[in-house]
Amino acid sequence: MIVDAGHSPAHAREIQSAMDAAGLPAARWLVYTHHHWDHVWGACAWPDVEIIGHIAGQEILQREAARPWSHRYLRDEVRTNPLLGPSFRARALAMETWDGFTILPPQCTFTDELVLPAGVRLRHVGGAHAPDSTIVLVPDSAVALLGDCYYPPPAHLRAPDDAPDLTMVAGLVSDEYDWYVDSHSEPWTLEQARSYGA
Prior knowledge:
By secondary structure, this protein is an alpha/beta fold. Helices cover 31% and strands 18% of the residues. The strands form two sheets. The protein has a six-stranded mixed beta sheet. Strands 1-2-3-4 form a four-stranded parallel beta sheet. This is Metallo-beta-lactamase domain-containing protein. It holds the Pfam family Lactamase_B.
């Protein structure tokens, strides 16, 4: 199982090369923690996987897949809404080519919780960052993958007083999990997670 697809097909291929070098088997499942581009745009480069995500993300990604993505489209959208600039410039830098690119909604969806083979649990938590935010709980390795669930809304939607949702963090901490991993920070130990959510 792979959690999140990478921010582009090229990024996905880098992850696959690292998996090959480590002697890991090919992924059978691809789980989306949420629908944001930097988590899903690499999906079209993952062969033979079943994509799993929350039902709210499926609907959003179906709309995203219909947009005419290209460097020109990104520029035009930023002209219309300059607040999109940082995100859309990052997308342009991530995409070397648009050939063969497509956004893939999840094929398998759930609403509250889903248990995958080997006991991996997907739990919808929502939150201000994305309505489909999902955490991935891996009991046999005592790891909780948080995605971006407690982050504030994306920059173009953020109000001046928006901040990380530390109450959500506190509610996710459990003695069952020794490690807490979000998408853009170093992993935290259980003790660090407890203090972060305090």
